[in-house]
Amino acid sequence: MSIRRSALAVGLTASLGAVACGATTTTGAVSPAPIVTETTPAASVSASPSPTPTAPPEFTSKITKVTRDQVKYSWRPGCPVGYDDLRMITMTYWGFDDKPHTGQLVVNASVAEDVASVFKKLYDFRYPIKRMEPVDKYQGDDYASIDADNTSAFNCRAATGSTNWSQHAYGLAVDLNPRENPYVEADGSHAHSNADDFVDRPLKKPGVINAGDRVVEAFASIGWGWGGDWTGTKDYQHFSKSGR
Ligand SMILES: [Zn+2]
């Protein structure tokens, strides 16, 4: 009995180790194996705990309701959607460091599933994203969020250069890698100096979105348009349900 218990314990340790390996690059949980090898056939299981320790985890996403506290700065009474009509997507994204990360995006409840399906595609083809935090982390300051190269969606604000609500105020627009994909005025000017090298298109650099590429196609698969297709002003970071 004691041998069997020991084998079970080691087997459990090994499988827990294998889970940890999926998330990191360590190859732990191998050390108990030699002890078991001499005592029980179960050893063969624990002796090869993780044949693919470096394989990145699959994309995951979780959609949850948004609390008032989570949109303390970015939502206020009078916004065109109630915060109870918003959802938090907590999901995997691929980083510029070639590693998986977990980020959060606040969107309209009506598009949460669709948007998550787009980000699964981006993850699966390893499109790198610099940062993904709700704009509340920046006190709702769109300029600060963009300057930090933050990918975000909901923000109750007017459209740039307008008094009308932005599509972001409805949670129906996403800004993706805003430094690599700046908002460029018709005269070529732009507001963020850290985006100087990313104004022209086409441009082959990591995270840069070009006309007709697979990022644009991924959003088009849920019917969303790209700001890079606008005439005059170009908003290369911007995807929205309405196309505006
Ligand atoms: Zn936008």
Task: Kindly describe this structure.
The chain folds into 2 domains: 2-47; 61-240, no CATH class. Helices cover 24% and strands 14% of the residues. It is built from 6 helices and 8 strands; from the N terminus they run αααβββααββαβββ. The chain has helices spanning 2-23, 33-37, 43-47, 112-124, 142-147, 214-220, and strands at 61-65, 86-94, 100-108, 173-175, 183-184, 225-226, 234-235, 238-240. α4 runs antiparallel to α6 (214-220). With 244 residues, it is α+β, with helices and mostly antiparallel strands. Residues 1-46 have low confidence and may be disordered. Bound molecules: zinc ion.
Output the keywords:
alpha+beta, three-stranded antiparallel beta sheet, 6 helices, disordered N terminus, binds zinc ion
